[in-house]
Predict the 3D structure of the following.
Amino acid sequence: MKKSIKVVSIILAILTIVLVSIPVFASSASSDYRPSIVNYNTENVEKIEGVGSRILGIVRVVGTIVAVAMLIVLGIKYMMGSAEERAEYKKTLFPYFIGAILIFAATNLADMIYSWAAGI
């Protein structure tokens, strides 16, 4: 039973590699192909860019406001709490920092990818 699972796994891995590489070989074989019709209509692209930048801005502002408000609330609770409560708040600070870093990193990464793609 274990041997057949290993054989099937190896066959699936080889099949995956072959199927993923087929488009690469196909595109390199016909590199002299040039499309005859090119549509340079960018009207819809500009609308999508505007909506995307507005959504990204809203997420960035709301995320920053929520992160700062939570930091203020946790800071006040930490200062006013007893020793046992402070230990509990220290446990909640680590997930808070991870979430805040993810919010800031995600919006900045999306902005960097957008500016990189716009330059192409």
About this structure: The chain has two domains: 1-30, 42-120.
